Amino acid sequence: MGDPGTDLPQRLRAALAAAGFTYDGVADLLGPLAHAALGRNETTPGLRRTTGGSPLETLVRLFLLQTTVPAAAAEAALPGLVERLAVEGLVEQSVGEVAARLDVRPYATDDDDPLWVVSDLTPGLDGGPQRVGPDHVLGISPASTSLAQLTIRDDVGASLDLGTGCGVQALHLARHSGRVVATDVNARALWVTRFNAALNGVADRVDVRDGSLFDPVAEERFDLIATNPPFVISPATGERLVYRDSGLPGDQVVEHIVRAAPRHLADGGWCQVLANWVIAKDRPWDERLAGWLADDCDALVVQREVMDPAAYVELWLKDAGRHGGADYLDRYDTWLSWFEEQGIEGVGFGWVNLRAGSTDPRHDLVEWRYDVEQPIAPAIAAWGAAVRSPGGADERLRLRPDVLQETVGPVGAEDPEAIVVRQQRGFRRARQVDTVVAALLGASDGELTVGQLLDAVAHLLDRDPAATRATYLPQVRELVDEGFLVP
After folding, report:
1. Domains of the chain with CATH codes
2. pTM across the whole model
3. What are the residue ranges in the chain where pLDDT is below 50?
4. What are the b/e assignments for 453-474, b being 16+ CB within 10 Å?
């Protein structure tokens, strides 16, 4: 692999754009059936849809379907670039044919500016071997898209992509950061990230550095840190896939990041982590993780999923291409035995969101396995605003516009048996309320204070105003924290 600072990335971008090799262009070419099949790592429907020989069809067959294409077709799709790409290791040439050695994939974002991401080839296409090398550079994955949807997109001065991999988070961060530092211990990942930064025209804003975790940024602070660390929980056997295994046992790599991140955050800065953590026997998961959290940071930790040890081991052995191999059963048994020795009864998956600079920190650790709106980042930012809201009698609040009210009871009854308010966006929370809270929510338009509204409701319902305030002000605080009411 050569220097990404040459003109090759820019010339490749121009060729990809000229061919219409964008996410929408590929989706339109393949159609729903073949596009969905490719998402399942099946290429046959896509091969049937790309027989016309156009530059777009050639690029899809070459990079996404990973089949050989005629040399003349490759030259037509990538004019003057095939030999250069072969020298740099993106393709290989044989007699009359060209094959991909790296994946080049169009990537969709929320705006209309297309991106492309280079990574190692997708393993396991059409049920083929999935074995990957220890320095494999993973491409776009469910984990990387989850982190992208989690990350708050406010304009900031400096961001850190910790454990950059192929650099996709750095590409996102470069769109709203003055500068981005991207770190990794995998030399191939560092080259790929530099190439992707140049390919997408942000090389001047992405500083790629070699080193483990926070070592390359020891004295620096950032407004935003985003990381999908190598969080797979396994015994430290010495054999590791760098993109998923830290080399540390258990969830120590996640604990280290959560404990160390506040030292690298500017005042008000966020660190957002996509991670796994141990669920230990006889100890609640939230109690254990609460011990990692700093006293000067707000924290929202959300457990999205829990896997039992057997399902977890099966998942990651298959990911490594070990399923069905000669040593599969031995590895399975060794891993499960280690879980038992460590007292691990499950593995949690979710989000850790830290915000620095709080004098009165809030630590909310919640289990939320329900569907949420994506991207979830605006809801995380809204939580950050809510926990710094006083939420008292003198505050003016308004009902979030997406909240709907549902009533349950016999047809024609004067009073409903139950009133439920339900969010349509963000976390999509639902909450059962009584007539006082329903009336308060309905009247919350930001004109009157909470205290004034509670007094008015108490008067309408012939209740004592002081008692009504004492009873319902704590509920108002909860309604603010949960996002039903906003400042």
Report:
1. 8-108 (no CATH), 142-387 (3.40.50.150), 396-486 (1.10.10)
2. 0.92
3. 242
4. bbbbbbeeeebeeeebbeebee
